[in-house]
Amino acid sequence: MGYEINNVDLVNHYTAEALTGFTVSFMQALGATTEEADIIADGLLTASLWWHPGQGQGLEKLIRYHRRVTAGDEKPAAPMTWVQEGPAYALLDAANGFGYVSGVRAMQRAVAKAQTTGIAMVGVRRSNHFGIAGYHALQAAKAGLMGWVFTNARAEMAPWGSTQMVLGTNPWGIAIPRQDTHAIVLDMALTMSGKGMMRWYHREGRAMPDNWALTPDGRTTTDPMAAMQGPLLPIGEYKGYGLSLVTDVLSGVMTGALFGLSVFQDEPNHNVGHLMLAINPTMFMSAADFHARLEQLVAEIKQAPAIDPDRPVLLPGEVEFGRMAQRGQSGIPVSRETVDTLRGLAADLNIPFTL
Ligand SMILES: NC(=O)c1ccc[n+]([C@@H]2O[C@H](COP(=O)([O-])OP(=O)(O)OC[C@H]3O[C@@H](n4cnc5c(N)ncnc54)[C@H](O)[C@@H]3O)[C@@H](O)[C@H]2O)c1
User: Fold this and answer.
1) Is the pTM of this model over 0.85?
2) Regarding beta strands 119-127 and 89-93, do their DSSP bridges make them parallel or antiparallel, or are they unpaired?
């Protein structure tokens, strides 16, 4: 979608070092181990570099960690265990620990197995919100493999033809490694947008596109507040609904996690499910052949003329890697509302507020 920040008064800008340093000390003050704090800081930094603050994946997640950990609903240093394992699959019980941490451990295991088996699948149960799907998929691409990641999420999408929310935004992250440049990263929710972005449009006083969400009684609207209690609309109408259902089968039903109406409902037992696939792209041919063929496809796509010369044809992930480079120079935006809340939480945790 490539959301723009239209009202720059709503954000502050920081360096990567500032965001990482604050996140690590915040998470450690909540009881996270050094490994956990480092993983979460890397994930939230990546999200802050890639996405619009209204998408809600950056530092705003610290507020959620604070709420859930201090209530005892989500566990730092959780004793995650491997409950099943074969040559090309494994299942991780995340013991109600941090989703980012279980996701990284699961993808590391999938990559290690796929190095020998060609393809591996790792499921995760009893997890929590794992952040951005593309972050986990990218771990595979960094090792030269393709990553394909699914998670389920709170019911916010109705089955096509209804207004009753049964399925989640259930994002997919798919990363395809390229030589000497960024991976292709398709990282997307299966809904047109999310409630966070709707709230952001409301704060900016803007109408939203009428294909983002319905009012609770099933009418289309461009008023974000009129649709706040209604269902989010799937990408591609009934096709996106179908993908969301399949995603819940793969990540929720199949792993033993909660799914559908139950997942994310009980605060101490969100029991989110994820599924990670690692695929070795050189199962059928040499790495040189694979990459030559992939670059040919990329070249064919890139030579397609843009309808609007100011909006060139892009690969999935290019918007985000472009923003990452630009924000590395100009600073990384964090919503002022988030900064103000974090200032209070830092005082609660007795850590210096360094933002
Ligand atoms: N863990 C969860 O429960 C959860 C739930 C929902 C979303 N998320 C995360 O939120 C983030 C944002 O998701 P989103 O769906 O709002 O993202 P989005 O709609 O902004 O982008 C989706 C994808 O479209 C691509 N894209 C955008 N414009 C393009 C163009 N012109 N040409 C080609 N490709 C283009 C992007 O590179 C990206 O891969 C993701 O990281 C997602 O994983 C997480």
Assistant:
1) yes
2) parallel
